[in-house]
Amino acid sequence: MRIGLLTDGGYPYATGESRLWCDRLVRGLPQHEFDLFALSRSADQEQQGWVRLPDRVGRVRTAPMWTHEEDARHPGRPRGLTGRLATGLGRSYGRRDRRRFTAHVTALVGAVCAGTETGPESDGAGADAAAGLFTDGLYGLADLARESGGLHSALRSETSVRIVESACRAPGAGRTVHSATVPDYLAFVAELERALRPLSLDWYDEDGLGAVDLCHAASGGAAALPGLLAKRFFGVPLLVTEHGVPLRAHYLAAPRTPAGAPVRALLANFHGLLASEVYRQAALITPGNTHVRRWQERFGADRNKLRTVYPGMEAERFGAVGEGDDGGGPGTLVWIGRIEPAKDLIALLHAFAEVRRAEPDVRLRIFGAPVQGTEGETYLAHCRALAVQLFPDEATDAHAVGDNPVTFEEIGGPEVPDLAEAYAAGGVVVLSSVVEGFPISLVEAMFCGRATVSTDVGAVVEVVGGTGLVVPPRNPRALADACVALLRDPERRARLGAAARARALELFTVEQNLTAFRGIYLDLVGHAPARWAAQVDPRDPDGPPRPFATPPEAHVLGALPPEPVAARAVAGASRVPSWAVGAAGVCAGARGAGDGDA
Prior knowledge:
Helices cover 41% and strands 10% of the residues. It is built from 21 helices and 12 strands. Helix 1 links the parallel strand 1 and strand 2. Helix 4 crosses helix 11 (261-281) and helix 17 crosses helix 20 (490-507).
């Protein structure tokens, strides 16, 4: 079948979220064809290029959500590659379209303002009314954009600002929203236009999302918005996968944005209403863990539509460590990850000070690099300074050179050439985060057969499942006690490490992830209403309809005659995807950073 894979700031770009997962999905399901519909987040991401795409990717359409240009074509890319805003963008509406636009924006913004008084946990009539207004406005604007274009300029017009002002001042608006001023109206209108930009793309036709059998959104929010319209316009079923919670990430990032409190409140409610509509319209939702699932249920996801599918990870690279008999450095604690405040290395260093009082010969090796930006560098410098303060160079006598028991290292040097060697360097792996989604480093440690001590955040308890010690976050004393308990009991370390490896191999491999989605795809399309009009064989218009865009016979050599011109090729024949051929016959997707495993 033909899958429309929807991404936001990820695949096929060389940098981005869920890139490796998407690549493994596309490469691991060769019986399906994939069309990519990708939103990019920054000019830097665009400049980094794409990963090398497999031949089963039929087409790629991209659209930048960060630019202010009305037509977002990239002159250096093949014609038809990049999504653009619908024809007519920026022109003036006629009287009838102006009335439609005003009515739809009034409904949508009214729902956003009213919703600040009715949160996601409210089941009252107010919440239902807000949701109804929101969907009326959203789909009304989508219909208008498809028929007449012009949303970009219209949403940034004075009319939109006045609508926002009236809604914020209307009875029932929250106190925070009611305090908004003109700069807040302007800021929210700009953010609203950017959030609704997918409505104006040229993806919604018989050659775009109308040609796929299933839309698979790699995240909620903006990535799933084209899937909502594909379902509305063509009846295409929508599958939503969330390994994290975009809405939660928005809430966490809001305090650090320059926008005022009224704008943050309006945007939070807009994203909450959008998430609820995505969950309501999705045929199936696959959270990556129970922590994500709880957020989805909080915002209205039907439990009958939820199926937890853990993200697959490569176990082979850690096989040599996990199958070894050695216990690593029995007197060494290891921490691995990105160095940032959410990882709470400050608490880890204070906990290690307690560990050293109980076990003076223990060492702590911290492997990682700071996140990009000044915040990461500043935090790393603060951690280094604290380590020097807590553990001044200790000399065994007056003439010996002291040695700090805490080291900050980066993977890739001669002593630790790869990630597996880092996990092999210690007997106990520690995770000290205060904020965590799906703890990748914890799963990698489990693949390596290492006993772990972790803080109870995100999906940690679900991942560990009794094969490691879990303590409250921001509690250095509890973290230290758990580490000392494992350091003093090698037999317990070995038992927990073996159980952790067995659990990881059962639940968290690439193979189990691919097996799950292989069955999900067939089940969803098998239960979806047949869209016969779109699936008539162009070589035999009077013949019987076919259920999928690519019938099973197309994969049997010689079963069907060759398709004309741009049609998909028969298995066994040579085919070049449309995305791969540029003006000079050069692979456009190869401009990125190598293959999908880079």
